[in-house]
Structure formats: C-alpha cells, structure tokens
Amino acid sequence: MTDAQETTADSSLRTTGGTPPDDAGSSVLGAPTPLLEPREGIPPVITDEAALTRMIAAFAGGSGPVAVDAERASGYRYGQRAYLVQLRRDGAGSALVDPVACPDLSGLGRALTGVEWVLHAATQDLPCLREIGMVPTRLFDTELAGRLAGFPRVGLGAMVEGVLGYVLEKGHSAVDWSTRPLPEPWLRYAALDVELLIDLRNALEKELDRQGKLEWALQEFDAIATAPPAEPRKDPWRRTSGMHKVRRRRQLAVVRELWQTRDLIAQRRDVSPGKVLSDAAIVEAALALPGNVHALAALNGFGHRTGRRQLDQWQAAVDRAKALPDSGLPQPGQPVTGPPPPRAWADKDPAAAARLSAARAGVSALAERLNMPQENLVSPDTVRRICWEPPQAADTGTVASALEGYGARPWQVELVTPVLLQALTAKNASA
Q1: pLDDT at 185 over 80
Q2: 356 is a domain residue
Q3: What Enzyme Commission number(s) appear in the record (predicted)?
Q4: Can you give the residue range of the structural domain that contains 85?
Q5: What's the rounded Cα separation, in Å, for the pair 349 and 390?
C-alpha cells in the first residue's frame, strides 16, 4: 500500500458527490461511501444543434482538464460506434451528448484542442470518438496511470473506490446503449462515470510524481494521443472462437464464407454478428460440411428456430466454399511475420531460447522492483523480436536503437536497454 493510499479521506462529501478534499487519492480506512447522484443532478441529454452549440461554448470557456467517456452497444449493435458521450469540466459542469442525434462532434473536438482529456482506458474509447470528430491532442489515461503506479485493480470502479473512497454503481455497464430514450438510471450511471474522473486524475498525478514515474506516464499518454488509427485486421474471420478445431483447408474456407456472409447481414441489420449466427455454429458447419439444408438444420446452432430462408443462405455459403478450387482455399494458420512461438525456440535456435529466458527473467525482476506490470515496462513482442534477431554488435547503442525501432518510449529504452544487453551478451545466451 502506498503512502497516498494510507491517508484517510474526509467522508462528509461523498454521498451526494461533493467536491473531494485536497488529499483525494487516499484510500479510506473505513467503509467506502456510495456515490448516488451527480453533484448538479443528471444533465439533460443534448440532442439538437442549438443545445450542442451552447454546450460547446460552455466547455470552451471552462478551465483545466476535461473528463471524457463514451458508451457503446457492444454485443447488441454492429461495430463499436458511440451511443452516448459524457464530459465534465470545471466551470462547465457535466454534459451528456447523443451522438446519434448529433453525429458530428468535430466542433466540440476543435473547441477542446490543446485541453488535456482525461479518459479511463483511453484506447477503448478513442476509436469511436474519432468517428464522430473528437480527437485529443493531449490526454491522461487513469487506467494506465494506475498500472504504472502499481495498483492491483485498475477498473474505474476499483480505482475510484481505492483512491477516492467512493463506490460507483456499475450495474449498467453492459446494457444496450443504443436504446432510445435512455432510461434515467442509465443516464445517472453515465454521468457519474465522469463525476470524479478529474479528481482521480489529480490524485494519480500526485502518486506518480511521488514514485518518480510521472514523466514515464506523460510519455505513455503522448504515445497514445499521437498514435495513428489502427489498421484493419487482416483475415478477421480467423479470430472465430473455436478455430483451433478447424484444420483442413476446405473447412477453413467454410468458416471464411460463413463469417463473411454473417458480417454482411449483421452490418445491413446493424446488429452484433453473434446475434445473427454464433461462432460455435460456424465451426460446427465447417467441421460437418453439410450437403444440404436438412443436414445443416440438424447441426447445433441451426435448430428449428432458423427459418428456411436463413438456412438457404447459410447452406449457399457452405456450398460456395465446397466449390472453390484448391488454389482458392485459405492456408492453415496466418503468415508468420515475426519470431516463431517461444515454445519452439529450444529446437529451432537454442541460443535464442537462452537469450529469451535471460531477458524475461531480467524484465520480470525489473518490473517487480518498479511495481508495475511487465507489459507496461516493455512489450513482450519487442523482447521476443530482439532476442530472436539480436543486433549484430550488441552494445548499448544498438540495443537502444532496436527498442526505439519497435516503438519503445525513451523511459522504457533507458530502463530496459541494460537488461536486454546483459541477456544478449551473457555466455549462456550465446553458446
């Protein structure tokens, strides 16, 4: 437990969401207090341009960082679009914006240019915010800050409770946020998600500074803010759950055809693909290679509730895969662009296996001393790549350059270079 966690916070302001005390960031020795209502009440949902314009002006005139959150309808709708955006800033209060009614929030994004955005698990929300024109130039990620500071639980509820002494009600996290109108309890939950986000940010900044990690965190936040949008995943159908059972190329082709057909239907209907056809049903059909709709209907996932028209479209996908020439069948597995799986290193390259073992041990020991997860200290993939194909002249400069080439930030390069250099030059690693 850190010094900041040991301080007792004033509980007199917690029940209705009053302003936390200056020592927020402290865990409460007694029972935490539920946060029941936003301090100014639930703000009305903004659904028209006039209200949006007023809200943008208010937030542009606010002060300090802005807390930002977004709610999606994962598992209900196709894609990961935002169905509600929550914001809070000193001088402006809280706001709830409906991005379905107001799909272009680029004006809000421009008004907040240069302002630090506070998000929890920023990489989850940034793609859907980018779609509606909201792109931060600076950010503070409270989840990542918690990881770097060594907190064992970094979900928003756990962080608010452990650091500020409040309990957030999390019962609506997995609801269908595309529902209209949104029920009042959901809106209360959404508003409370940003209620204390800036307070949490301030407490974590103090804790990171106390641990000597604030500059490291700032470099991480800058890397997230400046990262380009992720490239579309190649062959996303290969991520079908249960794919490990499918080994023959013809069966792989069935998975691909069914997955692509399902995706087109889900996109057209704007529903989650899993609501159209389950992954388990796709794999079942691939393994069975049914010859007609009667055989298909007998498989798990294609029961009596599946209409004849639906069965016909799924069987047509199976038939297309069965009719492909061998040259059109997918290859098993995905093209390997990096090192082989570590379990194969001992046979393929014993010296590389020894380097990796030494590097992993060194990184693990360093991460433990720094009280942070190993993957935040350095990407495991980066360690594997450097150990598999080490620089020809293993010295401080070349190892540091290799780390930089794989995207490591300056603080990571400084800390990890000596560890990797020792692993690469150890006698048992080069034997």
Answers
A1: yes
A2: yes
A3: 3.1.13.5
A4: 3-226
A5: 13
